[in-house]
Amino acid sequence: MRQRLYQQADQIEWLLATHKAPARVTGGRVTPRTIQFHLAPAPTTKISRVENLVEELALALNVTSARILREQGALHLEIPRSDARPLLLLDLCQEAERDGNMMRALRKPGMTLVGIGVDGVPLMLRLGVADVPHVLIAGTTGSGKSQAARTLLASLVMYQPPREIQLLLIDPKASDFNAFQIAPHLLCPIVQTADGARERLQWLAEEMERRQATNAKRPLIVLMIDELADLLMQGGSALENLLARLIQRGRSAGICVIGCTQKPTAGVLGTLVKANFPVRLVGKVTSAHEALVAAGVAKSGAETLTGRGDFLLIANGEKLRVQIAHLPLSDDDAFRGKFFR
Fold first, then answer.
1. Which of 20, 27, 161, 176 has CB atoms 3.0–4.6 Å from 146's, for a disulfide?
2. Residue 215 contacts by C-beta under 8 Å, 6 or more apart in sequence?
């Protein structure tokens, strides 16, 4: 593979020089799904000129797509790997279990193992803290949105006991969360209808009031909603108002909301998402407009992601590229057998 990377670097330098936008390839990074080439443009080269050559670069490298990234003052060309492979959650867990520091971190209430960053280092996210009160997961079909939700749930139930974490799952498709239906962390059976969701959210709002009255925050309750936009359309204003109360006031009572949607449009999600989800996991979307609504920041580039677990983590206005770990549906039996004995 190393020889192939050298050849591609030469092709990049040759094409840029041919189009009077000279730059050197100074290094790179290989992830399970992508290859990044670090570029050092000549002083006379305009960055916009390099960006305008992205289609020519993809053609020269014989790949389906390419994109130019600017991160921390550096310029990168990213292309998909021809031998891309999934990052399996159970494999990543085995790696984490060999590292004492990672295991101590994963035992903290609300800590989840998300995947790996572009540097290959495992990425974790702690739910329910001030910086991560709630999370929006967005992406079109094939982006890996439901996989991201399953991964967050799986890492919670694998490493944290029910006395620390409790789950309330709303899954209108009745498919993606089946692996968790016998988890001891569940507060109730998985909810599959809008009417059932309204009843459970009403109960959770009352539980929030009780906790606030007694200053209780534990155990952390994670409310996971798949197909959030569809649920809001079906459930009407009553359900939307309940959800808004939980999102606006839930963190102080130890309630974290994770909403998943493949329709990140302002008309559907409105101000509910814009004002109350400071942390986003955004996969591939269909347009720059959807990328803006889903990410909450301009020019995120979410519409150019490669799909299948290629995500951006947006937090505090900054974005971090992440490959989401994958828990295949075919692994559900093995997952249940190992962790729900």
1. 176
2. none
Which tokens hold the place of 127? Answer: 């739910």
Per-residue pLDDT of 291-307, as tens digits, reads 888 887 887 888 888 78
Same domain (yes/no): 95, 64: no
Q: Are 88 and 74 in contact (CB under 8 A)?
A: no
Most confident of the following: 31-35, 71-75, 224-228, 259-263: 224-228
Question: pTM of the prediction?
Answer: 0.84
Does 63 share its domain with 17?
yes
Question: Where residue 48 sits, what CATH number does that domain have?
Answer: 3.30.980.40
Q: Which of 229, 146, 236 is nearest to 195 (CA)?
A: 236
Tell me, rounded to whole angstroms, the distance of Cα 314 from its chain centroid: 9
Spatial strand order of the sheet with 74-80 comes to 23-30, 34-41, 74-80, 67-71
Residues 57 and 122 in one domain: no
Map tokens 């519409």 to a residue.
Answer: 303
Whether the Cβ atoms of residue 338 and residue 154 lie closer than 8 Å to each other: no
> In the sheet where 111-117 sits, what is the strand order?
122-126, 111-117, 318-324, 310-315, 279-282, 135-138, 255-261, 220-225, 165-170
pLDDT, one tens digit per residue, over 329-340 is: 777 777 777 676
Question: Which has the closest alpha carbon to 11: 71, 69, 79, 70?
Answer: 79
Are 141 and 229 within one domain?
Answer: yes
Q: Are 138 and 119 in contact (CB under 8 A)?
A: no
